[in-house]
Amino acid sequence: MSIWPAADRRPSRREFVASAAATIAAVAWPSRTRAIAATARPTPSPSQLAWQRDELAMFVHFGVNTFTDREWGDGHEDPAIFAPTQLDARQWARTARAAGFRAMILTAKHHDGFCLWPTKTTRHSVASSPWRDGHGDVVREFVDACRAEGLKPGLYLSPWDRHEPRYGDSPRYNDFYADQLTELLTGYGTIHEVWFDGANGEGPNGRRQEYDWPRVWSTVHKLQPQAVIFSDAGPDVRWIGNERGSAGDTNWSTVDPAVVSYPGASGPAVTAMLQHGDPDGTVWRPGETDVSIRPGWFHHARENARVKSVDDLLSIYFTSVGRNSKLLLNVPPGPDGQLDAVDVTRLSDWHARLGSVFGENAAAGRRIRWRANGARGRTGELDLEHSTPIAIVDLGEDITRGQIVARYRVEGRDAGDWQVLSRGTTIGYRKLDRVESPIPVRHVRIVIEDALETSRDVHVALYQGS
Predict the structure, then answer these.
(1) How close are the terminal C-alpha atoms of the chain, in Å?
(2) pLDDT at residue 39 above 60?
(3) Mean pLDDT, residues 348-353 taken together
(4) Would 42-357 and 369-463 be classified into the same CATH topology?
(5) 249: nearest Cα among 39, 25, 447
(6) Which superfamily, per CATH, for 369-463?
């Protein structure tokens, strides 16, 4: 949800764009960065660019866990427990659209192995449930609802399957998994994001499953070439490294693919790469920040009083979208098959709050005078014409040309000396800074202090909201 007021006649963002401190410092400022030629710097594909411009996507965790009141099923659940009485995927999609989301991702299969579509690969699916008299298809209703509401559908297919007896017999299970993936990617029209994780538990026979990730990636690319693939290791977009809703304050969209070579990889270097990226990275792999609106990922009525507050959600927006990431917010339906009224109200209130916070851009229509500042720096100044208390600084690079800003500061003054409003490292697609102590300023100065190559103009918006 890119919030740019209709009255702002400056170029829109879409037009403008057309675990220690030492580790963070090493990620942000390696000296070898200067050796990368500007012509070799990675840039986003059209699909990656469209994906990031969406800013907000809703995750929908739904399945047998919804009815057992658990987070992880064990694969022994009776399909008969799956019996939503009022399943309404249009309600999910209407809620998402009204709250500013542009995409949704459904858990077509979680770790328990229960499939939300009538797959031919197993009887452990909705076809064996009483819902819709065994003729239902949640995936079909989900993608149809998304398209009816103008949202982009995505699907998650858990690689770990605690029900399937072939799990742990790697070649046989990989064939089974490829068949499931093929069904999802050929039977439901265009899918915009295909979501995987590295979950890898023991199979019933105690053997560890070895996933054939190259085969998985190639299957998606063949059947849905426009889709972006999410996992720890990409290959198109990466996990941000936690489920707290917080991307790294330093966050490059480029990574070194050798550091996170497969989904499920772990260790300090992996964590640092997921959180912060790498300015020397050879591939463009922006981060996706996933977090749930509730303590758990599936709906539990006992958590109704623990749904994240509007202030919590606003903070997450700043630490995800506002740190060059995309926010994937999980909102799970209840056993009746609808989003809980508590969650729906919270999303509506959050959307209204965002509209208020980003309601009026004080920089709208103001000319920014840019000039070179040293070998790679750049300085831009603008006159707001009257004193205005600035609470939020909103910056953005033209990432169609790559990401290059490595350090910046923003200053303001009224009639006296310049005072620092905010400072940071990376900007990328979007960087949101809250000014710690807003003061009235008439003049604002944006100083690009360091960049990976000769810096360029950046998009600037200034807001009084908090």
Answers:
(1) 17
(2) no
(3) 98
(4) no
(5) 25
(6) Galactose-binding domain-like (2.60.120.260)
| Tens digits of residue pLDDT in 171-190 | 999 999 999 999 999 999 99
Sign of the Cα torsion 138, 140, 141, 146 reads positive
Q: Which residue has the higher pLDDT, 410 or 15?
A: 410
3-state secondary structure the chain: CCCCCCCCCCCCHHHHHCCCHHHHHHHHCCHHHHHCCHHHCCCCCHHHHHHHHHCEEEEECCCCHHHHCCCCCCCCCCHHHCCCCCCCHHHHHHHHHHCCCCEEEEEEECCCCCECCCCCCCCCEHHHCCHHHHCCCHHHHHHHHHHHCCCEEEEEECCCCCCCCCCCCHHHHHHHHHHHHHHHHHCCCCCCEEECCCCCCECCCCCECCCCHHHHHHHHHHHCCCCEEEECCCCCEEECCCCCCCCCCCCCCEECCCCCCCCCCCCHHHHHHHHHCCCCCCEECCEEEEEECCCCCCCCHHHHHHCCCHHHHHHHHHHCCCECEEEEEECCECCCCCECHHHHHHHHHHHHHHHHHCCCECCCCCCCEEEEECCCEEEEEEEEEEEEECCEEEEECCHHHCCCEEEEEEEEECCCCCEEEEEECCCCCCEEEECCCCCEEEEEEEEEEEECCCCCCCEEEEECCC
Q: Which CATH superfamily is domain 42-357 in?
A: Glycosidases (3.20.20.80)
pLDDT of residue 284: 98
Res. 208 pLDDT band, cuts 50 70 90? confident
Contacts of 351 (CB under 8 A, 6+ apart): 1, 98, 99, 100
- Percent of the chain at pLDDT exceeding 70: 91
pLDDT at position 207 is 72
* Least reliable range by pLDDT among 210-214, 270-274, 421-425, 434-438: 434-438
Neighbouring C-beta atoms of residue 284, cutoff 10 Å: 23
Domain parsing of the chain, residue ranges: 42-357, 369-463
Is 33's pLDDT higher than 60? no
Give the CA dihedral 273, 379, 355, 107, nearest 10 degrees: -20
The stretch 273-299 carries a mean pLDDT of 98
Distance CA(424)–CA(149), nearest Å, equals 38
Chain centre distance of CA 448: 26
